[in-house]
Structures are given as C-alpha cells and as structure tokens.
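FW: tagging you since you asked about this chain on Friday. Here's the raw sequence from the shared folder, copied in full. Didn't touch anything.
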Amino acid sequence: MSFVPMSDLVGKAFRRGYAVPAFCAWNAEVMEVILATAEKLRAPVILMSGPGEFPVLPPASMAAVAYAIKARYDTPAALHLDHGDSMEMVDQCIAARYTSVMLDFSARPFEENVEALRQVVGKARPKGITVEGEIGRIGKADEAAVEGGSASAYTDPGQAADYVRRTGVDLLAVSVGNKHGFYKGQPHLEFELLSELHAAVPVPLVMHGGTGIPEKDIRRSLELGIAKVNVASELVHGFRESLMTQWRDGRNLWTPIALAEAAGTLPAVVEKWLRVTGAAGKA
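HL: got it, structure written out here
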C-alpha cells in the first residue's frame, strides 16, 4: 500500500474522537521502526520531515526512501512536510509525492500567512494533497528544538476561523500552551481556549509539541478537536542519548552498529503514542 492523503487518516480520527500521531522520520531505520510498529498495532500513522531533517536527505531523496520502505507495509500512512519554511520547499515536496504539506508562516503578518496558504491549497488540492496551516505561534520549550521561536502566541478563535475560511486548509495547528521540545516544568494547556477553537473552526486541529504533555491532557485534547499529535523530541532524544552513551563508553564505534542499537529506543515511544492517541486498532 502506498501513502495516502493525510486528510483521509485525520478526517476519520476527527469524526471518531481519536488522533493520528505524526512522527519525525529522518532516515530509513526510523521510518522502518515507525511503520513496523504501526502495522503491529494496526494503527494509521504519519511520517513527517522538514527543514530539520532535509540536511540528511533532500525532499526527493527522503520521499524515495519512504516510498521504498512503505511498499513493504500495509498500514495506512501519510508522508507529511512539517513546518515547511518556503514556497520552494512546498513545491519540492509536492513534486516528490508527499501526501501532505505544511507551510508555516505563523510568525509572518496575518495577511501574508493567509495569501501564502491560499496559494498552497491551490497547488496541492488538485493533486489530492492535504494542507496544514498554523495560526498563533508555537514556540520552543528548550534550545534543542528546531521548530518554533523563543516566544509563543495563543491562537485567536476569530482569527483562526477567518484563516480557515479564506485559505481552505484541511488542518489547523494551534497554540494553546503547547511548545516544541522538552518542557521545563509541567506544561499548561488552555483547554477553554481549545474548546473555543474547536467550536469556531470546522477542520481537525493539530497539537504540535506532544512530547512531555501528560497522557490525561492529551486525551482531554482529543475531546476538543485535536486529531493529529506531532511527536519529534522524544524520538530524537532517545536516539541521541543512546549514541552518546555508546560512544562515551567506547562501544560500537562502527557507526551502523551504533545506529542499530539507537533505533532500538524508538519502538516503545512509537507504541506509547499510538496507544495514547487512540490510533491503535484503528487501521
């Protein structure tokens, strides 16, 4: 089975009250683990990559690897551009057969954000490609995170409704206290604001910065319109810590062996999020 439009997966989740997790997938072994774990749990899943991952492989090569690995798995999955930072990057991912794209102009003036995403929808929709936009700013919880800036700004429900209406985006990433990276202290989500956004916006909502949010808060968010949860830092952290430990201890200096051991930290993280979001058993 090939990749499908992300809206096929997330739309179903939105209607049924669960979410589909999107995992940062920066190389072949990570893609393999994500897809194998999702298939074992009979879960839909999203592989995502973007400016933080393209230094490893550019979009065309990243997609080629993803499609080659996906051909061996039947679990429904989407291939998503996360936090695209330019129209050129969006065009590259569309050409590479990504089935979903996000252009993140949330830090730019509102009208510029609207016009850019309107253009993306015009390019993507005729090809059956899902489009994600962002209103408000989802900042960084730590300095290790790639996405987001130093400051956050909550999403305004009225502005969000206007944005969705004018752009036609399929999904909307919102800022309600969630941040990229590892939180310093307990994260505080504004559930009243999330409820207002859910009432104001007719499309599925996206939670960026899933790492570190308590399971009970994730589950409550699912009741308030969140139908996609992004997970990156938890995967990267486990992988990085494994490599650092191996090499500090003088073990596995042959890099492929070290990478294989590091990849062993990933299945538990993927399985946890497939269960927390309710995606397990939904394929």
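FW: The chain has one domain: 6-233+267-276.
HL: agreed, and Confidence is low (pLDDT under 50) at residues 139-145.
FW: great, closing this out.
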